[in-house]
Amino acid sequence: MTVPERHVPSPAPMTAPALRATYRVQLHAGFTFDAAAAIVPYLARLGISHLYVSPILQAAPGSTHGYDVIDHGALNAELGGADGFGRLTDALAAHGLGLVVDVVPNHMAISGEQNRWWWDLLEHGPASRYADHFDVDWDPPESRLRNVILLPVLPDHYGRVLEAGEIRLARDGGRLLVEHGERRFPVDPSTIGPIVAAAGRAAGSDELAFVGAALGELPSSTTSDRELVARRQRDADVLGARLAELLAADPAIAAALDVEVAGLDAEVERLDALLEAQNYRLAFWRAASRDLGYRRFFDIDELVGLRMEDERVFARTHELILRLVDDGLIDGLRIDHPDGLRDPAGYFERLRAAAPDAWIVAEKILELHEPLPVSWAIDGTTGYRFANLATGVLVDAAGEAPLSAAWDAVADAGPGWEELVHDARVDVLGSVLGSDVNRLADLFLAVCEANRRYRDFTRHELHQALREVAAAMPVYRSYVRARDGLVTDADRATIGAAVAAATAARPDLDPELFTLLQRILSLEVDGRLAGELAMRFQQLTPAAMAKGVEDTAFYRHHRLVALNEVGGDPGRFGTDVAAFHAAILADAPWPRTMRTLSTHDTKRSADVRARLVQLAADPMAWTAAVERLHIASEPHRTGPELPTAADAYLLFQVVVGAWPIDADRTAAYMAKATKEAKLRTSWTAPDEAYDAAVERLVRGALGDPTFRAAVDDVAAPLLEPGRVAALAQLLLQLTVPGVPDVYQGSELWDLSLVDPDNRRPVDYRARDALLAEVLGMDAPAAAARLQDGVAKLWLLQRALALRERRPDVLGPAAAYEPLAFSGRQADAMLGFVRGAAAISIVPRLPLRIARDGWGDTAVELPPGRWTGLDGARHAGRTDLADLTATFPVALLERDA
After folding, report:
1. pLDDT of 291 higher than 90
2. Mean pLDDT of 139-151
């Protein structure tokens, strides 16, 4: 694999730019490399050091996100290809910015012929050049699926679709293909020999007949003999090329082959026999939940897992990216979903060795008290935990009981968060992840069969035990390594906790079965199969957590949806100040970890969350507001199906949090939310009547002046405290240890919901014009622009300027020391000192402060004189009323 011909960029700077702050953009056909290059001057003036982009390798045609890579050896043509990338890197170099790129090692997209590796796999089966590149089970217990890839792509059962004439054999030049609708599949060359030979005889072409006979004599696709595999590939290529030449040279030969193909198409039995001889099995789409023989990305059939633990696969998938790193064109790598890999630590070891100077961060979701594995050779995570900390610390704990009572009154999935999470994880493990569990059950059965003590356990019992333990994992996964027998104390604790919970939850299952599974997962049972089960189990549990919690439970539990965030725990009602400081200090080993508030994956933008957490500061007002919104929306709850009270409760939080929001965006969100919840409707089993009822409610209510007036009234008292809270989150992000990341467009108020809502176009011309104003603006003028978001842009620019000017104070090595407050609102404040020379102070409960006043709230500043963003100087004991008189949050720098 070689780097494609392309525009040659200007020489990279000898020294990479200092890493201060990143700015994330989502690349797609509507926002290309050139579009990203166009905003580089703006980002430079803003104070960003590195542009951070979504995946840049060739993705499936029409991809809007880039995570469906089909060719690791090419830059995405829809983004501008190599030339466009060269222009982008030129622009970055000219303005002194670096580049961070998203990398997807876990999976590839199955996208017809565009993915040459997968196409070759379907064509040649286990004898493919790439058979060992994909995580495929070629030897399942079911003989019908042995050495076959199940393709669940049909709208109905295979036999019905075939007999309806919707599957056909077609010729495309010198190739024969299987077609269904717009989908095309290759034909194993060894299976078309009789068809080609018959065409040769009919056309009187001895050579065509010879080619047909030779194709029929190709070695079997199931052979494991390397010499035979190589011969099959070589001969198939030669014979295929000769067949194409013959067909192109003689129309009579081509016509004869067309007649044979048409004849086969017309005979269902012959066509069925040909299809049965292929290296894949076309099947009803619902078969994916039970019989799929390859590892997917979560439950997405079109994304197939890669065997990244194989050094050849790593080399082939990373050659281009690492070449660009070596050339100084890429400075950092964001690694997508490492928990899906068989051996994340091994992957990072290999990556770090290949890119020793790159900034490497991993999209790793950590529970609140879960440390990042120290064995990972990376600089930190992409910041989900910080996003939850920054929002959680804004929550008024006094609102927990009233908001819990309000939710209990309308909850339709049970109010208990832990029980709800367990049920949701068990559900997805038995449905959308059923194939993955079945593959593990096959391994578990083989382990038990080899031991007389366990051989009488049934497949059903083993399946149930696996589901229960996977559903009970307290974190995303363990990280045992079977190849070297490595099991850490943390792994043992994680596995032990999950098995204990599963054993208690299922007294109907033999406890010894769970004990056996615990020993297997802890690598205490010898044998290849036991080790394989332990390693594969670790790749299942992240999918169970993500699909069961973030994509199911989060959409069933609406007590305070600001807390329903990736990596968050809605069962925990916010975060107190001590826990916030402890979490930041615990990150000391990772001083260059990413700090983010909004990402392309967050369920709601940081600004929406900052507004919604204000509900906890005045829960009685929210209870009254819900009643008013119910009454105003009641005329639009019509038809034979009615939206549940829980879904209406979610709707009210959505519109208040993102207000003003139109009906189209709201309807799209509610359609996704109700389907993800999987209670009344779902993606795989939609209830059209219920879906229509939800849409009627949304569009009717948002088109009703009475309802809109009610939302206006409910949202009005939340707007200013929500904006102050958003500024508080932003200042925390910009000044705690780590590297802040700004998500596209969020430098102004961004009231986005879950994707695709958060991938809407950004108006950079408007932002560029506002930045020109901001550069000459003082603090009072900025504070006066709270409503239109200029205050946010002003704070961002000023804090980034301080980060650039004082890396000794806000850089990786600078100390972090919590501040203490006194007086009436002491518990409503959060502050800390960085590097003994910068102080951040934010009001974490702005609605309460606005209602009750500052009173005698004060802070004792460390020795010295301190200058705020407004130019005012402070020393010693300082009243918070004075400190925030000209701007809602305070960033102080110690005078020299």
Report:
1. no
2. 82
- Contact between residue 771 and residue 793 where contact means Cβ atoms under 8 Å apart: yes
Position 855 scores a pLDDT of 96
Has residue 12 got a pLDDT over 50? no
Sort 645 into a burial class: Cβ within 10 Å, 0-12 / 13-18 / 19+: middle
> Does the N-terminal peptide bond of residue 756 adopt cis geometry, omega within 30 degrees of 0?
yes
Name all contacts of 804-807 with Cβ < 8 Å and 24+ positions apart: 804/20, 804/47, 804/49, 806/835, 806/837, 806/838, 806/893, 807/18, 807/20
Predicted local confidence at residue 704, as pLDDT = 97
Query: In 10 A of CB 852, how many CB atoms?
Result: 12
Region 798-824: mean pLDDT is: 96
Query: Please, which residues have CB within 8 angstroms of residue 766's CB and are 6 or more apart in sequence?
Result: none
What's the average model confidence in pLDDT over 259-267?
Answer: 91
Report if pTM > 0.90.
yes
Question: What is the pLDDT, as a whole number, of residue 265?
Answer: 87
Alpha helices per DSSP H over 431-526: 434-449, 459-471, 489-505, 511-521
Q: Identify the helix (H) or strand (E) that includes residue 735.
A: helix 705-735
The answer to whether residue 297 scores a pLDDT higher than 60 is yes
What is the amino acid identity at position 700? G
Cβ atoms 889, 863 nearer than 8 A: no
Binning pLDDT at 50, 70 and 90, where does residue 641 land? confident
Look-up of token digits 């009231």: 751
Question: Contact at 8 Å (CB) between 809 and 834?
Answer: yes
The alpha carbon dihedral of 881, 885, 889, 891 has a sign of: negative
Give me the percent of the chain exceeding a pLDDT of 70.
98
**CA gap 16, 331 in Å, rounded:** 7
Compute the distance between CA of residue 283 and CA of residue 277 in angstroms, rounded to an integer. Answer: 14
Assess contact for 551 and 676: CB atoms under 8 A.
yes
In 3D, which of 754, 590, 791, 549 has the Cα closest to residue 672?
754
As given in the structure block, the two tokens for residue 326 are 């070596």
Counting every residue written for the chain, the total comes to: 896
Do 352 and 360 form a contact (C-beta atoms < 8 A)?
A: yes
Cβ neighbours of residue 610 closer than 8 Å, sequence gap 6 or more: 391, 394, 562, 722, 723, 725, 726, 728, 729
Burial of 410: CB neighbours in 10 Å, binned 0-12, 13-18, 19+: middle
Average pLDDT, the chain: 94
Residue 140: pLDDT band (50, 70, 90) is confident
Q: What is the 3-state secondary structure (H, E, C) of 757-807?
A: HHHCCCCHHHHHHHHHHHCCCCHHHHHCCCCCCHHHHHHHHHHHHHHHHCH
Angle subtended by helix axes 116-124 and 226-249, to nearest 10: 100
Strands 359-362 and 332-335: parallel
pLDDT (0 to 100) of residue 415: 63
